[in-house]
Amino acid sequence: MTRWQQIARAAHGPAYAEEYAARFRDLAAEGADVHGEAAFVAALVAPPSSVLDAGCGTGRVAIRLAELGYDVVGVDVDASMLMEARAQAPRLDWRVGDLSSLATGATYDVVLVAGNTIPLLEPGTLAATAERLAAHVAPDGLLVCGFGLDDEHLPGDCPVTPLADVDAALAAAGLEPVRRLAGWDGGPDGAAYDGGGYVVTVDILRR
């Protein structure tokens, strides 16, 4: 059982994937904007650019990007979450896969890692995951990661993964930051990261 599955089951029981998907559907029905990550990507590259949603969960972001005309592949280690994704969008390309050994056979204009995927990685896999993510970034592509850096922005008892550790792993994989934001709101021109509890970092492969 993965770190995410342990936390999710503790909070929601065995039906955690269904409850996770339903929560965002309810928010959308109430008028909340649940597409900040997709809007962020859309401000970086135009459709039909290719996007790898790494750690796609129940597919909320990937489905929205596909609706906007992007060529999307969704990958997640949790088959239960992917069942929800497939139920909502059966024609999209959903794949079960561990990001630390990811090998889709392709590169992408944007590799997106949202939903606290980074701090929810299994212990000891950050370096391997960074290397595998970098291997999927096209020569002129971008890696976009968003994740919490304190208890307020992390689920359950998920431990903090320090930003310095993520930076070091991405740098070792050949990536360098070109932009760092405080969140998805406002897209790539939103508020700059100021040391708060959530960060979105945009990285590019070093030439």
Structure description:
There is one protein chain. With 207 residues, this protein is an alpha/beta fold. It has a single domain (3-205), classed as Rossmann fold (3-Layer(aba) Sandwich). The protein contains seven helices and seven strands; from the N terminus they run αααβαβαββαβαββ. The chain has a seven-stranded mixed beta sheet with strand order 3-2-1-4-5-7-6, with helices on both faces. α5 links the parallel β2 and β3. α2 packs across α5, α3 crosses α4 and α6 (126-135) packs across α7 (163-172). The radius of gyration is 16 Å and the shape is globular. The mean pLDDT is 95.
Question: What's this entry about, in short?
Answer:
The protein is of the alpha/beta class.
Task: Lay out the secondary structure.
Blueprint: H1 3-12, H2 16-29, H3 36-44, E1 50-54, H4 60-67, E2 71-76, H5 79-88, E3 93-96, E4 108-113, H6 126-135, E5 137-148, H7 163-172, E6 175-181, E7 198-205
Parallel strand pairs: 1-2, 1-4, 2-3, 4-5
Antiparallel strand pairs: 5-7, 6-7
Helix pairs in contact: 2-5, 3-4, 6-7
Strand content: 15-25%
Mean pLDDT over the residues: 95
Q: Helix share of residues?
A: 25-40%
Report the principal-axis shape.
Answer: globular
If strands are numbered along the chain, what order do they take across the biggest sheet?
Answer: 3-2-1-4-5-7-6
The ordered string of helix (H) and strand (E) elements is: HHHEHEHEEHEHEE
- The figure for the number of domains is 1
CATH architectural type: 3-Layer(aba) Sandwich
The total count of helices amounts to 7
Low-confidence stretches: none
CATH class: Alpha Beta
